[in-house]
Amino acid sequence: MADHLLEVRNLSVTFHTVRGPVHAVRNVSWHLDRGEVLAILGESGSGKSVSAAAIMDLIDCPPGEITSGACLFEGRDLLKMGVEERRAINGKRIAMIFQDPLSHLNPVYSVGWQIEETLVIHGTPKAKAQTETLALLAKVGIPDPAGSARKYPHQFSGGQRQRLMIAMALALRPDILIADEPTTALDVTVQAQILALLETLQHETGMGLLLITHDLGVVAEVADRVVVMNAGEIVEQGTAADVYANPQHPYTKRLIGAAPGKGAMAPDRTGKVVPLLEVTGLRKSYGAFAALQDASFTLEEGETVAIVGESGSGKSTLAKCLLRLEEPTGGKAIYKGRDLLALSPVELYAMRRDIQMVFQDPTQSLNPRMSVYDLISEAWVIHPDILPKVRWRARVAELLDQVGLTPEHMHRYPHQFSGGQRQRIAIARALALEPRIIVCDEAVSALDVSIQAQVIDLLDGLRKRLGLSYIFIAHDLPVVRDFADRVIVMQGGRIVEQGSVRQIFEAPREAYTRNLLAASLDPDPAVQAARRKARLTESLTA
Amino acid sequence: MTTSVPRPKADAEPTAVRAVLSMLWADKFATVAVIFLAVVLFCAIFGPWLLDAVATKQNLRGRNAPPFDFTRGWLFWLGGDALGRPLLARIVVAAQNTMMVAAGAVAASMVIGSALGLIAGYSRGRASQIIPRLADVIMSFPSLLLAVIVLYMLEPSVTNIILVLAITRIPVYLRTTRAEVLEVRERMFVQAARVMGASDTRIIFRHILPIVMPTLLTIATLDFAFVMLAESSLSFLGIGIQAPEITWGLMVSQGRPYMTNAWWLSFWPGLAIVLTTLSLNLLSNWLRVALDPTQRWRLEMGARKNG
Amino acid sequence: MRKFLGKRAVASAVSLLLLIVMVFFLSRLTGDPTQLYLPVDASLEAREKFRELHGLNDPLMVQFGRYVVDLAQLDFGDSIRKARPALDVVLEAFKWTLALALITMALVTVAAIVVGSLAAFRVGGLFDRVATFFSLIGASAPDFWIAIVAIVLFSVNLGWLPTSGTGTIWHWILPISVLFIRPFGLILQVVRGAMITALSSAYVKTARAKGVRPRPVIFVHALRNGMLPVITVIGDQAAGMLNGAVVVETIFGFPGVGKLMIDSILQRDFAVVLAAIMVTAIAIFLMNILIDIAYAVLDPRIRY
Amino acid sequence: MRSVYARLLGGIAAFAVAGPVLAADTDIIIALNEELEVVEPCMASQSNIGRVILQNISETLTELDTSNGALKGRLAESWEAADADTWRFKLRSGVTFSDGSAFGADDVKASIERTLSDKLTCEIGAKFFGGMKITAEVVDDGTIDITSDPAQPILPLLMSTLTIVPAETPLEFTRTPVGTGPYVLSEWNAGQSIVLDRREGYWGEQPVVTKATYVFRSDDAVRAAMVGTGEADIVPLINQNDATNPATDFSYPNSETTYLRVDNTIAPLNDIRIRKAMNMAVDRDAFLGTLIPADAIKATHMVPPSTLGWNKDLAPLAFDVEGAKALVEEARAAGVPVDTEIEMVCRTGNFPNVTEVCEALQQMFADVGLNVKLTMMEVAEWIQVYSKPFAEDRGPRMVMAMHDNNRGDPVFSMFFKYACEGVQSGICDADLDKMIADATAATGDARGPAWSPVFAKVHNDIVADVFLFHMVGFSRVSERLDFTPTIATNSELQLSQIKLK
Question: Looking at the domain covering A277-509, what would its CATH class be?
Fold first, then answer.
């Protein structure tokens, strides 16, 4: 047993809150060996990060309390070691990288300084640390290492920041790297690069890699073994391929079932084409910078048009311009014979009823100080002619019912709901105005897969029942594949390609679209293995 | 607000109150502070009504009676002042003016300052340029000069002291509100409201103000203490409230000539100021933690342990 | 940066101008210095003569015009009371105020940061509670009260320090200590709050994961981030001090600009009042620029 | 940045080094309550300036001996009335100014002209020489004729106020005063201190004190504490509450009189019964030894007892609440609006305990059934209600004031306070006007008896005001010095009178 590089045994951690103790993890045991990639898979709140935090001594006590268990590193229990001893292991023998590298890098020190610090505190002489830092930066693919070392975290892109984190973590060639959601919130192409980098480095150093993720695709791409967690407990573990191909636990089954990109694509629309919204030559520039150039497309009644692209492609700008949250620089958007972009404030007010929006993060898009009733009925306060006040309560109940919540939820506040429930509230709020078009700006990106699937189902059902049209902005291609009728691909402020969902996914014309599709990870380890083989041969032949 | 809808809150209300109380109980300092403030508030409301007659009863031949002389009745436990009036009664009576000045100045500066700050932060027009300049001017305008101007042209009454102190504190709220509004107006739920067609007034009052409010309230608690001390300093310099009106600050400054031979004249009202400001500071510290979801566990933890 | 400084200078000049206009006209609403200057028994002719001599009989607009023209030539007018150029009088006092403010704020800043950071490190611990409690008590007491108690204790009873005045380094200790207390309490609270936030931030987690020792975690990683809100408060407090510490100056016989200002206001020596306001406003303006620069130095994300 | 620090550190180091130089025993430190704004001799009637300059730097032709009210020569050896409006002064010879130049009649003439000039606002000119025209004519270097229009029987007394400066002194406020006195201004650190050094070549007896340093502390408690801590030798003004040590603390009549100036023109104050009632309502004895020092004297005059013409027969109306109430009721029955609110205006910081005194007075008036409202005012505002022109729409009003007459002659008080044209007069009575004019013009031995009935008429017949107290001040003097403050200490502090024990 003591042969494992790292072993967690029967770990239980409790957090004390006013509502009583919360058992974050219970009796969790797993192990990691040298040269191995172990993935801990779980959704938010599953406790998947807690054991890593215990290993790194990052659990604040109080409010946390490690009630039982051991974390054996090379056979010695980390939890019983002295502060100074653990400090000497942290960063040197076991390193960690986090989700959101922007907030995890200290904003006020240069990245070179931060990487050097790791080396210096563990005994590397200052001069040597400096040269090594430059070497590390080069190794993780940061251009102009000498210049970059003097820059600050905010001056890098998201992907580069994660590379910097990796450089910092690997500075002392640790035996174990813990990566906590390292690619979440990164674009698919960047995600692929980071995963590739991690893999390369792991091969080079032979370290053990502990990957904490919610993404089946990431597991499929890199993990040797996987531990599936739910509600603080391990429900299943095994090799990645086994678990995917042959899930035992119902939760695992549900999780795999919910993974998007598996269902049938929408058929190409045929029959009478009724353009509901016709956008031509839409432009937006900030000074000299053109955020959106010459975008033209149509939206038909009852149709879902997805707009995909990486961050900075201009897809959100497009949505904001259509909704007049930003004033466009030029172009037209004809809806019901009127140009939305030329409406006076009074006309705009009337138009708001017809076009609504669901935002990415429901936590932020719902006013935390308003109850669900207030949030939904606000629509009728603003547009009093929709509904007489006496009917508000009934209608709120009805809407909540429609989005899968119950009328009892009416008097609660947003923070009392889970993420998926909050997004349902946001959808109910949009529906309150009885719109014709709903713009969904990354509306499901922040949700766990199982929740994501439910919300997509909800949106789909509403479309069928109410005849809504969606403009569905997303970076996640599998979701788009499941949900959209037509797809618009954007890059650098331009529409590079548009067509029916089949056309885009099965016969992409543009190289950019193809890259995007190739980088998107499949939840099936077998599929990913095949793709890797293909990539490898491709690179060999090239 | 505009959405006054009858709604049953039967289940939510008591638990919320109990949660607040238990969080308060978790911080013993804050609990004591709240109790003390409640006593002060009681004195401020009922003090003059109960004790005004005794508090102004002079006795020139029994002046500067020392404290802790328990033969003379409870009113003289804290001693008597330079005119032989019982200090305890005077402190109780003075609580009203003191609280009125502080509360009035804080409320007025908060309302005006935050209104201007909302305008400056929300509008993108000329007001957003001019109003911060106005704040600069008020900041550099010496409060003493302002006091002399106002008190010369009007009279040194409680209302006018409130006016002076309120004007000098306006920039604090103005700047804070403006900075917060600049941030809050970009938040998602404000955008969501705009998408629904909400008017600017609605966005400001229904969506932005409630978010800014906790910060303003925290500042207000601290300012309450600050204003009491400022009023006391003005009295010290002879341009504040004047006798026969009575405030704690005025009592302290009137007792100053006796500090070496009748310390109690300025000590007790000074202690009242210290304890009140201290209580407010403790309360504000507690509020800061209680209103911050990321810090609240500290109190919730304590409540669990003690409750 | 240069563009930013230019913009700031223009904005401040506008504020200053507005301030001068307001102070000039408002202060003249508070009465005529004649009766204050002359003995109460002075005849009406003597008063008339005095008014004529100092141009107080001219319409207010004429007086203002004359003031502005003189000001354009950097002539701030003469003090009626002191029969000297107002600017000389103010600068003489201001150097004392500046020294007092600089020394006090330097001490306050260092002390508050050290104590506040340590308090934030173990929130609710003994050190935190003691530091918070005593700093709050200090910040809650009227300053003239503390000043007189300090004099009675340290000068009269113990004889350790001189009661008041200037001259030796010992004379500075009591005024600085009394002046220290309130901003210390306030800044300590802000440091503590900011450091609690900074210490619970993600990059501190990274630092701990890297194996950084607790002390550098506080004073290197968290502190520089936590300093931003602190600097704003330090600026506000320093600005208050540059306006003069009237109470402390009065009690300790310290010849600063606060005492000068209140005396001039009470005596309606308008030229001195205006000159003092301008000098302190300019000093505060310069300090605000320093603070903006400090922001930029501390936080590379801020660029003007 | 660096240079700022360097300078700052340098400054601190300098302070540390420049510690108190070991002072000679004959060096003394005097703590004053306010800073000198100017050191101009023609402003020496202001008490804070006078305490430093008067007779120390700048001397006068004559000097009032406050112990007996007699006038003695200083720079003048003798004087006589040349005719009805001209006085001839024989000057002391062998006197030199501190700049070395010799003192002569032309200096006196120049000083008079300078003090009364239109180009300067000299307080001595405005305070003592208002409403008259003075011309000086040099007879010879040691003799000068001074003529006044109208005639001034007390011209020699007036000359005790006028400081003599060299003829060449420019017509602007000087910062380096030159005088004939035993001391010379050697250092002036604005805001901190003024240093006077004894000079060689003074015409009179060489004083003991070699050097006097004046420092300024506006806080009463601090100032008083400085003698005990050895930081000061004399504190001319301390608060009565601090005057607790009989070995060092001296009380002295300070020639100030407190009173309530009553506006006799407005009902109900225009009724003598009400004014009498107010006088009877004040329990003056209760104040003595409590809020007012025990040594103060209950006042019946506007001037202190050492003044010419003091009327021994006047006594304050006895404290009698019932009698006062009866008078008020009588007035009410006669239709006087006795319930009208009367405003009592007091000045903050006028004298120690002024607020308490006013609060107590308000209570006493209330006890006899008068409706008195107390308003505390800052000096600038107070002076507007104290001096004419009075506001047209004013209500019934009393103003608490403290009047200083240290010159020994009632003329410096009575016209201003009681004549119809008097700037602070609350009454107008043709008979009284005539009596004041006659007394002002009276000369020699007739002058005293001319004033006495004026006092009686004001106090007994008109009951114009509510007189309170002739006040005393307190000084603290180090035990190593032999110096006893007198009534003169309020306006001057002659270093030459200070001896060592």
Answer: alpha beta
Classify domain D1-7+24-41+182-248+478-501 at the CATH class level: alpha beta
Residues C64 and C98 in one domain: no
**pLDDT of residue A265 exceeding 80:** no
Min Cα separation D331/chain C (Å): 34
Q: Which chain D residue is nearest to residue C106, measuring alpha carbons?
A: D5
A129: its two tokens: 């640390």
Asked if residue D196 has pLDDT above 80, the reply is: yes
Considering the domain architecture, whether residues C247 and C147 belong to the same structural domain is answered as yes
Question: Which residues are registered as beta bridge partners of D397?
Answer: D343
Taking an 8 Å cut-off on Cβ atoms, the answer to whether B202 and A349 are in contact is no
The interface pTM score, or ipTM, of the predicted complex is: 0.79
* D421-472 confidence digits (pLDDT tens): 888 898 999 999 999 999 988 888 888 899 999 999 999 998 999 999 999 9
Place of tokens 């072993």: A7
How many other C-beta atoms lie within 10 A of the C-beta of residue B7? Answer: 14
pLDDT in tens, A401-419: 888 888 888 888 887 787 7
Q: Which residues of B touch A (CB under 8 A)?
A: 2-3, 5, 7-9, 12, 19, 22-23, 187-189, 191-199, 202, 206-207, 210-211, 293, 296-297, 299-301, 303-304
Q: Which residues of chain C neighbour D386 with C-beta distances below 8 Å?
A: 40
- Residues D168, D176: contact at Cβ < 8 Å? no
| pTM, 2 dp | 0.82
Residue with tokens 């003004």: D237
pLDDT top residue among B59 and A282:
A282
| Cis before A63 (ω within 30) | yes
Cβ separation of B253 and C11 shorter than 8 Å? no
> In terms of pLDDT, which residue wins out, D282 or B215?
D282
- Shortest distance between the Cα of A97 and any Cα of chain C, in A, equals 8
User: C81 — contact with chain D (CB < 8 Å)?
Assistant: yes
Q: How far is the C-alpha of A411 from the C-alpha of C124, rounded, in Å?
A: 35
Least confident of A22-36, A166-180, B255-269, D170-184: B255-269
Q: Which two tokens stand for residue B159?
A: 């209302």
For residue D204, give the nearest of D321, D342, D73, D78 by alpha carbon. D73
Chain B contact present for D355, CB below 8 A: yes
The distance in angstroms from the start CA to the end CA of chain C is 5
Which chains are adjacent to chain C, needing at least 3 Cβ pairs under 8 Å? A, B, D
Q: Which CATH number fits domain D58-177: 3.40.1670.10, 3.40.640.10, 3.90.550.10, 3.90.76.10?
A: 3.90.76.10
Amino acid identity at C201: S
Give the pLDDT score at A364: 84
What pairing do the DSSP bridges indicate for beta strands D342-347 and D499-500? unpaired
**Domains of chain B as residue ranges with CATH:** 17-306 (1.10.3720.10)
Is the Cβ pair B148, D353 closer than 8 Å? no
Partner-chain contact A377 B3, CB within 8 Å: yes
Rounded Cα gap, residues B254 and D237, in angstroms: 19
**What is the amino acid identity at position C81?**
R
CATH number of the domain where residue C211 is located? 1.10.3720.10
Q: Between β-strands D499-500 and D481-482, what pairing exists: parallel, antiparallel or unpaired?
A: antiparallel
Min Cα distance D320 → chain B (Å) is 17
Residues in chain C: 304
Domain with residues D254-473, CATH architecture: Roll (3.10)
User: Last residue of some domain: C37, C72, C107?
Assistant: C72
Which candidate in D238, D292, D344, D348 is best for mutational testing of the B interface (most B CBs within 10 A)? D348
Cα distance between the two ends of chain B: 36
With beta carbons under 8 A apart, name residues in chain B contacting C31.
152
User: What confidence score (pLDDT) does residue D28 get?
Assistant: 92
Which residue in B has a C-alpha nearest to residue D362's C-alpha?
B244
